[in-house]
Amino acid sequence: MTASEPEPEPGRRPEPESEPERAPGTQRPDPEPAREPAPPPDPEPTPGPDPHPAPWRRPATAPLLTLAAVCAALFAAVALTVSLRHGAPLAPERAALHWSTAHHGEPLRSLARALTATGSGPVPYLLVVLAGLMAGRGAAGRLRAVICAVAVLAIGQAIRYGLMELLARPRPPAAVWASYASGYAFPSGHATTSALAAGILAWGIARRARPSVARTWCVVLALWAAGVGLTRVYLSVHWPGDVLAGWLLAATLLALALLLEPFACPRRNSPVPPSHRAHSHE
Fold first, then answer.
1. Measuring CA to CA, which residue among 227, 172, 178 is closest to residue 198?
2. By the 8 A CB rule, do 187 and 139 touch?
3. What interhelical angle do 189-206 and 122-135 show, nearest 10?
4. Is residue 228's pLDDT more than 90?
5. Vertex 209 angle, CA 268 and 45, to 5°
6. Which residues are CB-contacts of 48 (< 8 A; sequence separation ≥ 6)?
7. Residue 96's closest CA among 237, 214, 220?
8. How many Å separate Cα 56 from the centre of its chain?
9. In angstroms, rounded to a whole number, what is the distance separating the alpha carbons of residues 208 and 135?
10. Which of 227, 229, 220 minimizes the C-alpha distance to 189?
11. Which of 71, 277, 278, 281 could form a disulfide with 252 if both were Cys (CB 3.0 to 4.6 A apart)?
12. Could you tell me if residue 121 is left (phi over 0), alpha (psi between -120 and 50 degrees) or otherwise beta?
């Protein structure tokens, strides 16, 4: 201990050293707050169904025109063959008739009659009405879509009936029929009508459902339309060429009808957000 420093008195605690004087107007620095631990990273979201599926987009005009032209050309080739042969069946058609007449047992005959009944009458029209209700938006939009869908089916049936009367192809002999039929054979009315109804309903589903759901229903509807057409051959009331022509005619009409979709379901202009309107006036 040096001489300059005074010795503390016995029994007295040493006073703490005073803080250095601060300049006037300065504040004591706040103590640094304790840092909170960082929250754990959020787990990666698991993939699930998209709540906002991609909207339906009509195929481009060029592919639709190409499909319509190809199907129309194939239909014309089948119709020309039937006309040049004056309705006489080809060898594969006669073979199909012989096979069907040999397999008219139960329960296949009853099942075929039940399935073929769905290809005409009110069922196809109920399906296209459902398609219009699904495709339209709002009361006016649904009414417009229903009218257009029913019109496509009715026009298709009228064209089919005109071609049937024009070509006047006889049906197979009535003695081998397993179900009632009337009129001429070419093209098959059940095959044309069921294919048109299936295509129109698939369009309505595609405008409302997710793409995966729409594809599933397209397959189901295609199988239904194919089954209706095949029952006409199984029941021995149509030649296979009649059914093939009905499918080709329906595919042609459906491709052309899709070109008129903007008329059936016009797109509404989406409203401009308020923020965009505010920026546009600045």
1. 227
2. no
3. 20
4. yes
5. 105
6. none
7. 237
8. 7
9. 6
10. 229
11. 71
12. left
